[in-house]
Amino acid sequence: MQETPGTTHALLTLTIENLSKTYPNGVRALDDVSLTIPAGMFGLLGPNGAGKSTLMRTIATLQEPDSGRIRLGDLDVLRQKHEVRRTLGYLPQEFGVYPRVSALEMLSHVAVLKGLVNPGQRRETVDAILHTTNLWDVRKHKLGTYSGGMRQRFGIAQALLGDPRLIIVDEPTAGLDPAERLRFNNMLSEIGENVVVILSTHIVEDVSDLCRRMAIISRGRVLLTGDPQHAIDELRGRVWKKVIERGHLAGYERDCTVISTRLVAGRTAIHVVADSRPDGSFEEVPPDLEDVYFSALKGSDRRAA
Amino acid sequence: MLLRILAFELRYQLRQPLFWISLFLFFLLTFGAISTDVIVVGGAIGSVNRNAPFVILQMLAVMTGIGTFLTTAFVANSIHRDFESRTDAVFFSLPLKKRDYLLGRFSGSLLLANLVFLGVIMGIVIGSMMPWLEPARVGPFLLGPYVQAMLIFVVPNLFLTGAIFFSCAALTRSLLWTYVSVVVFFVGWGIAGAFLNDLENKSVAAMADPFGLSAFELVTRYWTVSERNAGGLPFTGALLWNRILWVGLAALILAFTCARFKLTTAEGGRARRRRRVEETVEAAAPEARAAARAPVSVAFGPAAWFRQYLHQARLETIGAITGTPFLVMLVFGVINIVANSTEIDDLYGTAVYPVTHLILQVIQGAFGLFVFLILIFYSGDMVWRDRTLRLSEVVDALPAPGWVLWGAKGTALAAMVVALHAAAMATGIGIQMYRGYTNFEVGLYLKGLFLVSCPQFLFIAALCLFVQVAVNQKFLGWLISLLVYVMGQVLPAMRLEHHLYRFATAPEAPYSDMNGFGHFVEPRVWFFLYWGFVCAVLVVLAHLLWVRGTGTGLALRLRIARRRLSPAARAILLASLAGVAATGGWIYYNTNVLNDYLPAKTRMDRQAEFEKLYKANEKLRGPRVINVAADVDIHPETRSVEIRGRYLLVNKTTEPIQAVHVTINPLVTINKLEVEGGRLDMEDARLGYRIFALVSPLAPGAQTRLSFDLAVTNRGFVNNGANTKLVANGTFFDSYDYFPHLGYSRANELDDPNERRRRGLPPVQRFPKIDDAAARMDNYISSEADWVHFETTVSTSPDQIAIAPGYLQKEWEAGGRRYFHYAMDSPIFDFFAYLSARYAVTKDVWNDVAIEVYHHPGHPWNVNRMIEGVKASLDYFTRNFGPYQHRQVRIVEFPRYARFAQSFPNTIPFSESIGFIARLDDEPEAIDYVFYVTAHEVAHQWWAHQVMGGNVQGATLLSETMSQYSALMVMEKAYGRDKMRKFLKYEMDNYLRGRGGERIEEMPLYLVENQPYIHYRKGSVVMYALRDYVGEEPLNRSLAEYVSAVKFQQPPYTFTLEFLDYIRSAVPEDRLSVVDDMFRNITLYENRASAATWSRRDDGKYVVTLSVSSAKFRADGSGAEMPAPLDDWVDVGVFGDKEPGAPPEGRLLYLEKRRIQRNEDTFEVVVDQKPFKAGIDPFNKLIDRNPENNLIAVSAGAS
């Protein structure tokens, strides 16, 4: 079959139901995860080892869960892998390249495998993506000679090839300098208007900048899901800040729900969640997504404890 | 610190399963080799003790070759591991000294590799304790040989290979390059071995072999059985220097690596130097950005998949074939072919024409294992490359079907196979061109390479791919692929010979210029079809099991496999399985239903059964054949023959005969088999034995007839051992093959002592004792007849000539067939042959004897040499031994399925591989073995067809040794003494080596029991030396008297005691001891020139003072030596400067036999010219295991 260009896609929704996965070494990577991900940017936040990559790989058809279902529109992701792959753009967290092949050759190759078998069209698409990812000038260099940032851009380029409708990017901005990160985020948000983009990151700022929906997961469980702004609003008026001596931290941790500590000019500032001002030395601060993130993790720690 | 790193390394590797697996495998391999004959490591154990010191030394030494795998896996890995797992940055940032890091890793892993050899030692120790071994074949436990083998071979060899591969891994930081270095190392080893593999280069070869195996071989090559059981290895000379050289080299390599290695990370030394690409910051043009996101036309479905496959396959293939590792291996493969082609098929150091099928043989020999290794390595590399490069997640998530991904890899492997074969073909043609041979036979190359050998490699590629996918563990995959391949080679030893279960094997398809690939093609095609279907099944299974994504659990993969079993996959799988069943069934029908499937061991069981059942009949004196008449119809096109014939039998005994026993090859279909006046009393069709009871006993002197109508048909094809006697062009069979025989036939007895013991047979008696007068009532060729009248009519296809002994009486055509009627005018031995082929005939005459050479039209080169050989032989033999009994000599070529020439009355079948393609015309230095073989066979017309020994020990001295002597004399007349010395060096070497391979007992020459190394090799040396002591004329006079006394005699037949009386009569009284030394005993000398000086006399002559040491030994049948008293006449010689035309030792200044009675002696010799070399027995006429030290340079002494 040949899909005609320009067909308008119905807006897709990715539905994840009760997904669980336990590795042979006993690590519970996914624990009854259910998410509904509509078209648009979706941020996946969580600490290292939370299960983000497992979840992403599972959605990207590369891993089998123990139980649960994933649907992309009408497709059963776990069964109709081939059909899913046809609409998939995937940038794994860690990936390598053939060191002695140029970006141009490699992208053409990926393009063929994505089904762009028409040479003329393939060339146009590849050229365009090289421009987009700012690799045009170095397209003929061997991938083995690329710097970390260039390699990352190459990874993005291959993921975006072939007009994917489900884009999964795992820690895409790691290793990019601030300017590149900004450009990449812009690119993603443009694409993210019509397709499902799942962005996994631990940079909270990226999510708050880009995503209309997000989920926070930790230890394989979804702690929170929804609109980031909404989650921030939920916390409004409940986050308090105080600058303390480092030695006193343990006492505060015992008495209040300390969600974060950070160093400010050599002194320690703590954020505390409480329905009312714990005492006069705390000042109210407007919450940000980071506070949401840490309070969610804290809450989960409490429950786990 | 170094010790800590060492200890860490040791602990780390001891935890790896690879160590334990290797230990177990090494144990298993040697255990099997010691306790069974199924596995052979470095040569069969033969008749020495299973745990003889020689076996221990050889096994441990040879295992170090396989141990290269260990040094790669452990030692190279110890450093490469850090680069692969990217822990280099961590380690290199520690406060480590470079030397400590490198040497710690190296020595720790090296120690581990050495530990694996504990498995070998345990294998030998435990293996030799197994209860099924014959106690007499197990010697006491000796610690010494193990210690010696470890110190001389294992530790140095592992150190050497470890140092090389460790250095490669450390300096290139690439596993693939390390493997390349392994292959290069091995091939280089093979090449050096091939270039240096002749008698002249022994000591160079011994130095050049990094494993010390050649040096070991040089030291032990003449060890007898008793020395192999006893011997400690003298660690001196070539072996010592070899070890010093290579260990020193290894140390240098290691030092170089320590110096060059840098504790830096980065992508390896080369990448670091490469220019990093400059970053450019450029805002992407908005339109480009839009284009990138524009919806594109994406194609899916079979057509698109196919294009994806082509694209991917092209990429994989180009990547693999243009990769430096492949090219390096290709180049070395080519060099290996060139190296191996230097010695194609040579005999006595004489080359042959590089005809295409021989080049093919070289390619298959030099390339086979090599292609296999490349396939093994690359299959693992390709299956794992995306994962190793961490690209697999990207690729696996792409919407290309799985088969596109692995299909492309399979295609690349196949392309490598084809590319290798194409390169081999180009190399072959290059070799032929270089040697000035221009009949390239491209069609034969294509057939031989791409139809006969290529498919097997493609099957192996499919297997490797499947195993890598199924096992999903690279090293284990390699190991299993290797095991499957090795099993195919090892199974036959366990009676499992059928190619249906030996992966990718098929019956051999030998090529003959005369017969092409002939009937060998058909079974090969069927087996290839069969294996093709098997591989299709494997490929579908690989498809189902192909790992895509990260889940590798077995249950999970099976679940996925079930899901992948689409209708198309199912259909292909079922079709392939049906193909396997159909072709397998057809093969089975042919090999096991139409034909008897008999593994070699089962065939031996039958031989044993035959012997057990019927041996008792051996002593029965039956009637004897006096007349043979046969009509033989050869059908080359169907490879069948019909034989209708009649034997006239007579009772030559003094008793009436009650029964006639008939033995007949069970393959033969019997239409009629009748004894006149007899009735079939017992019939064993399976083993081919029948007894006819005579209704009225056959009175002494009375006659009867045996008439028969037999057929041999080859139906379908067989698994192994296809009939090579009845072929489309080049039929050759003799009367032993298909004719009936009277009485029990000893020719079928098992002769291997171990095989006999296993089947409960008594030790073989190769020949009756020399004093067994009853046995001498038979000659040693036939127990059913003495001399017979022979007449035959043979027919064949109209385009062929059929030949049998006798003179052609009439030739005609009838019914589309060509008939020849041959009759012999004088009685001959009861042994005759039939040949049929499309021949060219070259004719000549010598006096009144017609000479005819029937040869393949494409083999004209040496026909004239054969004719000259016949003439020179007839000339010498008629003058020296007596008249020739026939009026004709015919030499008849037959295909190279067998490699010999054989003398029948007036007819000499001569294999195409021993002379017809020898390259002598432009090689004046070469030994003309065509001439020699011709002379030897013509000599048999005297020494076998006139003088025939009785069936007792020593009989083959009278035929084979005397034919050797006769041929040597003819050859000496034509080519001179220097050439003879070169020839005799080979004979001496073959004799001394042959002793170590003796399976029962070495006999003195006069009692030789059909032992080729004695009756040919020692026979040549002894008779040539005897001629030297006696003189040619007196010796030949005695021989002529002997011939005229015994020729054409009736029983009892002559024997060697009678022969020795004639020899004695020719030997001067004071030298009679040589007869005892040479014929009656196994005598060995150790002659050595210890010092030589010269001084100049006033008259200008030179006085040479030569000190020699001599010793003489007598050996028993196992080779154990006892000193013997010296009183011998031995050559003492002095040589001058080298000059053209002089012997290689230099111009001969003095040569005389001097009496040697003391172990140390000094001689003074006066010569006219300045002496350069002097020595004792300089021309190696006596049997001496160290012939190299007989000569010494003469130095100027005090005047």
Please mark out the parts of chain A with pLDDT under 50 across 5 or more consecutive residues, or reply none. Answer: 1-8
Strand content of chain A: 25-35%
Describe the global form of chain A.
Answer: globular
In percent, how helical is the residue content of chain B?
40-55%
Count of distinct strands of chain A? 14
Mind telling me the C-alpha Rg of chain A?
22 Å
**What spatial order of strands do you see in the largest sheet of chain B?**
4-7-2-1-10-13-12
Write down how many β-strands of chain B occur, each being a DSSP E stretch of 2 or more residues.
Answer: 29
How helical, in percent, are the residues of chain A? 25-40%
Q: What is the terminal-to-terminal distance of chain B?
A: 66 Å
Structural class of chain A: alpha/beta
Could you describe the 3D structure shown?
The complex is a heterodimer of chains A (305) and B (1199). With 305 residues, chain A is an alpha/beta fold. In chain A, 34% of the residues lie in helices and 28% in strands. In chain A, the strands form 3 sheets. In chain A, strands 6-7-8-3-9-10 form a 6-stranded mixed β-sheet, with helices on both faces. Chain A has a 4-stranded antiparallel β-sheet with strand order 2-1-4-5. In chain A, strand 12 and strand 13 (267-273) form a beta hairpin. In chain A, 48% of the residues are buried. In chain B, a hairpin with a 5-residue loop joins strand 22 and strand 23 (1121-1124). The model of chain B is unreliable at 267-288 (pLDDT under 50). Classes of the chains: A alpha/beta (305), B alpha+beta (1199). Chains A and B meet through strand 6, helix 3, helix 4, helix 5 and helix 6 of A and helix 14, helix 15, helix 18 and helix 23 of B.
